[in-house]
Write a structure and sequence with these properties.
Elements lengths: L5 E9 L4 H9 L4 E9 L5 H20 L4 E4 L2 H4 L6 H12 L3 E3 H12 L3 E6 L6 H10 L3 E7 L12 H14 L5 E4 L10 H8 L2 E4 H12 L11 H5 L1
Parallel strand pairs: 1-2, 1-3, 3-4, 5-6, 5-7, 7-8
Length: 238
């Protein structure tokens, strides 16, 4: 079978999941497969968050029934929309479904600790009005936010953003926040993984992206220690 080493299940909160699977298979080692369910998101309203949460739990049940080795819940804002914390959610879902569970947010935190990141600057594709929310999420992780930059895109347009935008916005973020030791690209639904190595080499900064960290954390959680070149220090060294 294709996933003879590991089958990683992922509940994808997105308008469409186009970039995520493409980027996953660029980075994943042979024998590791992605079991993907998309929970379609079209807006950020409270009612939408409630629906997305319920559909995420239904998707998690389906992935568990399919026999995945690890279940990753995507969409931190959705998961936290009803209160509680990620560790509690992971344990509750794991106990109920009988499968090991983590989240993309937990993966990012684990990556920051492994890399020794202290001052995190966030580069996200959404409106500049979301900057404060992204800074608060870094603060909630117990790390120091070094500012955020929004690209002004909407949910529908994410798959059409070129890698050049990630490079451009990453450079601008580092120019605005020279004290940042890490650039975070928190959304996995636009083209960023090809920008990781160029930005690390050019700017002398660590780069963490949602999908890169999720894959790294999933592999290490499953006891797979493959070192993967081309997508940053996290996958190459740790």
């Amino acid at each position: 079978m294709y996933g003879h080493r590991a089958r990683i299940g992922y509940t994808s909160v997105a308008f469409v999941s186009e970039v995520f699977p493409y980027s996953f298979y660029k980075m994943a080692p042979e024998g590791v497969t992605l079991a993907l369910i998309t929970i379609q998101q079209s807006e950020f309203s409270k009612n939408e968050m409630d629906r997305l949460y319920d559909d995420t739990m239904k998707g998690a049940e389906a992935l568990a029934r399919s026999g995945v080795d690890l279940l990753v819940l995507g969409g931190r804002p959705v998961l936290l929309s009803r209160g509680g914390n990620l560790a509690e959610i992971e344990k509750s879902v794991s106990d109920r479904l009988g499968v090991k569970v983590t989240t993309d947010a937990s993966a990012q935190l684990a990556a920051f600790h492994a890399l020794g990141s202290k001052r995190i600057a966030t580069v996200h594709p959404f409106a500049e009005g979301d900057n404060d929310r992204h800074d608060r999420m870094i603060d909630q992780l117990g790390l120091t936010p070094a500012g955020s930059l929004g690209g002004g895109c909407d949910l529908i347009g994410l798959p059409k953003l070129p890698v050049a935008k990630a490079l451009e916005w990453g450079r601008e973020m580092k120019r605005r926040s020279p004290q940042a030791d890490t650039l975070l690209f928190p959304c996995p639904h636009w083209a960023v993984v090809e920008a990781i190595d160029p930005l690390e080499q050019e700017l002398g900064v660590t780069v963490v992206t949602n999908l890169q960290a999720t894959l790294w954390h999933a592999l290490r959680s499953l006891g797979l220690n493959d070192k993967i070149s081309g997508y940053g220090r996290l996958l190459r060294e740790l």
